[in-house]
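Hi F.,

I've been meaning to write this up properly since the lab meeting, where we talked about keeping a consistent format for the predictions we share between groups. The idea is simple: the sequence comes first, exactly as it goes in, then the structure tokens exactly as they come out, then a line or two of notes. No screenshots and no reformatting. I'm using this chain as the first example so we have something concrete to point to.
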Amino acid sequence: MSGPDPLPTPYLLAHIQEALATDSRARELGVDVTVAGTRVVLNGTVATEAQRAAIAEVAGEVVAEHAPGHEVVNELSVMSHDEGGSVEELA
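Output, unedited:
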């Protein structure tokens, strides 16, 4: 007997996005999550390599629980220090 059926895509996406927003390791709302077949793809830009890894870890835990057989593809990029934009000075 195989494991549970994976959640329908909208529910899987909702679970991943909720985990990314609430898990203390990630706390990230700006990650784009898509599902293509059995691939869960993470896109966007994050501040550090540690944050990139933590987001993939959190997403992987959700996928393992709710969509066995799916794989997480981490396409997140880490913002370089010169991409930060201008600094706003407060009076």
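Notes:
The chain has two helices and three strands.
The domain at 9-80 is CATH 3.30.70.1770 (Alpha-Beta Plaits).

If this format works for you, I'll send the rest the same way.

G.
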